[in-house]
Specification:
By secondary structure, the protein is an all-alpha fold. The chain has one domain (7-97). It is built from 4 helices and no strands. It has helices at residues 6-24, 27-49, 51-75, 77-97. The relative contact order is 0.20.
């Protein structure tokens, strides 16, 4: 069975978390999606690139989530979410996924 790259897990968590929260109207449910995907990606980052890299990428993941809120006021919600998801995915690929 092929392993899903951590970049895809992280991006999917940001996009999926927002989508679930928006479509269900339940922010907690979206937060759960965000948290599960973040924890899964962090575990993969630690395995592929070590604890220091995993910590930095986890900070980027949380910062992407937080940063999408003010960015959404300027460019719209979906463009902000896709933008930060892409940035986190690129960082994940550069730091961890291309090694694994």
């Amino acid at each position: 069975m092929a392993k899903v790259p951590a970049a895809a897990v992280a991006a999917g968590g940001l996009i999926g978390g927002y989508g679930v929260a928006r479509w269900t109207g339940k922010r907690q449910l979206g937060g759960a999606v965000l948290a599960v995907a973040g924890a899964t990606a962090a575990r993969q980052w630690r395995q592929q690139a070590g604890g220091r890299a995993a910590s930095a990428l986890t900070v980027a993941y949380v910062a992407g989530f937080a940063g999408s809120h003010p960015l959404a006021k300027k460019v719209g919600a979906w463009p902000a979410v896709f933008g930060v998801a892409g940035a986190v995915a690129l960082a994940s690929w550069a730091v961890a996924d291309r090694r694994g």
